[in-house]
Design brief:
Blueprint (H helix, E strand, L loop, with lengths): L1 H16 L1 H4 L5 H15 L38 H6 L10 H8 L1 E7 L9 H16 L10 E7 L2 E6 L2 H12 L10 E5 L8 E6 L5 H11 L9 E7 L4 E6 L2 H9 L3 E4 L2 E7 L7 H5 L3
Length: about 290
């Protein structure tokens, strides 16, 4: 019997010792530990492997990938918006044509209408210049007088650089109104890039008449050829024929192209040929066949 009493006392003492613990809430770690011990007793516990490390996105040189942490930067590394907005590129100002003209001007050429076959000489240019200066002085009051940047005579051309488009128009109108300053004066004004380049041809005429007579016959039988605007570069006459190297107007050259470079002459036709090598001397061109 004493043994029974002592065992009852022990159970009572164990129950009393656990009274305070039952009221205390277990933490998550304690709960996991108890669960582990229970499963180990039951034989159902399986040990889990620790999770592997995720592959690093950091490159060899230490720079992070797209998922890496961005480098911190100070507020001074990026200028404020109001500061960047106030800055403008140096070339933000658009250069107008007037500004460009004021710097380089518009280069014009006063030439004879048959240039380069007929070129101006120094005496003729002096006459043109005198007339232009008079026209400048009589400019109506209240209007801006014509203004020019430069003038020069060279190679049969009187070069004048106008300050702007309005003075270019003034120059062209004034030159067209100069009239015949000398006999045969036929002046025109062109932009420097539009200097005329007249076509050059050679023809053999089966006649020894004067050049003027030859030109008249060609014009009568070929109305599309403006022979009055042709210039004779060279002329060679033999016993029965003559060879002419000519500089002709563009319209006549177009007409010859359309007729396969053939023109009517008397009771037959003559054949024109283009002078491809214009660097040769006229004497050499006239002997070509």
């Amino acid at each position: 019997m004493p043994s029974v009493a002592s065992s009852d006392e022990e159970r009572l003492a164990a129950g009393i010792s656990t009274i305070g613990l039952q009221t205390k809430r277990l933490s998550g770690v304690q709960q996991k530990r108890l669960t582990q011990e229970r499963k180990m007793r039951e034989g159902t516990w399986m040990e889990k492997k620790p999770p592997g490390k995720a592959p690093s996105t950091q490159s060899k040189d230490g720079a992070g990938g797209s998922g890496g942490v961005k480098r911190p930067h100070s507020d001074s590394s990026t200028p404020p918006l109001e500061k960047t907005a106030s800055k403008q590129p140096r070339n933000a100002q658009v250069q107008t044509r007037t500004y460009k003209e004021a710097v380089v001007g518009i280069k014009m050429a006063i030439i004879h209408r048959r240039h380069p076959d007929v070129k101006l000489d120094q005496t003729q240019v002096d006459m043109i210049q005198a007339k232009l200066l008079i026209a400048v002085d009589v400019n109506p009051q209240g209007k801006t007088p014509p203004q020019f940047l430069y003038s020069k005579f060279a190679l049969g051309i009187f070069w004048i650089t106008c300050a702007n488009e309005s003075f270019k128009a003034w120059l062209m109108q004034t030159v067209s109104g100069l009239g015949e300053l000398w006999e045969g004066a036929e002046l025109t004004v062109v932009d420097s890039k539009d200097l005329p380049k007249r076509p050059r041809v050679i023809v053999r005429i089966p006649d020894t008449s004067e050049v003027a007579t030859v030109m008249t016959h060609l014009r009568i039988q070929n109305p599309e050829l403006n022979t009055t605007d042709w210039s004779v570069m060279s002329h060679k006459v033999t016993e029965k024929e003559q060879t002419l190297a000519l500089s002709i107007d563009p319209n006549s050259f177009k007409a010859l192209t359309g007729s396969n470079f053939k023109a009517f002459w008397g009771l037959e036709r003559v054949i024109f040929r283009t002078l491809k090598d214009e660097k040769r001397k006229p004497q050499d061109e006239s002997t070509a066949s």
